[in-house]
Amino acid sequence: xxxxxxxxxxxxxxxxxxxxxxxxxxxxxxxxxxxxxxxxxxxxxxxxxxxxxxxxxxxxxxxxxxxxxxxxxxxxxxxxxxxxxxxxxxxxxxxxxxxxxxxxxxxxxxxxxxxxxxxxxxxxxxxxxxxxxxxxxxxxxxxxxxxxxxxxxxxxxxxxxxxxxxxxxxxxxxxxxxxxxxxxxxxxxxxxxxxxxxxxxxxxxxxxxxxxxxxxxxxxxxxxxxxxxxxxxxxxxxxxxxxxxxxxxxxxxxxxxxxxxxxxxxxxxxxxxxxxxxxxxxxxxxxxxxxxxxxxxxxxxxxxxxxxx
Length: 309
Fold this sequence. Notes:
Strand order of the largest sheet: 7-6-8-5-10-9
Strand content: 25-35%
Number of helices: 9
CATH topology of the largest domain: D-Maltodextrin-Binding Protein, domain 2
CATH architecture of the largest domain: 3-Layer(aba) Sandwich
């Protein structure tokens, strides 16, 4: 294949991730040319849809549906996704073919005054559009008030600065660093102002957070073969564990679930926290030499319900 068309959303982060996919593909021995094509998704258009409350009214594939339609129509060859946005159940004619190396999936607190979650003043306001983040914040700081926010990364940071009553904002480290922000000093500069940035180690990230997924047509065997060379095996296995755990729970991308799977010294370590329909917190962790993602995911689910007895 001499030319491969990559489909992506139009945000700064989506374009940065598509550029990473383009670079990975163009480094292959076949030396294909990769072209980036922008598609606007429902999630990009419908900023009126609140993501802060899990709801069946939220359209499935909010940030992926139009990219998948472009794939099926042959308008693009690969859909480049933030893997956390991609539903676990894909259309029958499409497949997840590869994952690029995962960035640190940790969430970070971007704040005007606080260097950690515990330093936010009593009854302070934290902005996030994620029910997963909101529920976990409430576990550690039930006094804090959480307000809804939508928009791309720069828009959210600008809103934090514009709202005098807001103290902090929660974002993914991967997104900030992929669009060029340096967070190594515990501070970041935005529009001439300095904000504190700290890892939210208390909060487990979203399923697939920090990973880039490459989705293709199931019958495109040549392209699937090419993408095996760009696939990062540890990322593929760990995110497959997370996605399988979400599938076993029967939840979509808006389920209040925090999870992280990683490989340490040959063992798969998995940890998760989620909130059931009654609002009850369920959590657990397992570690072992699991042979398949399903085995690891099932072991974690068994452990969580064993803890609940």
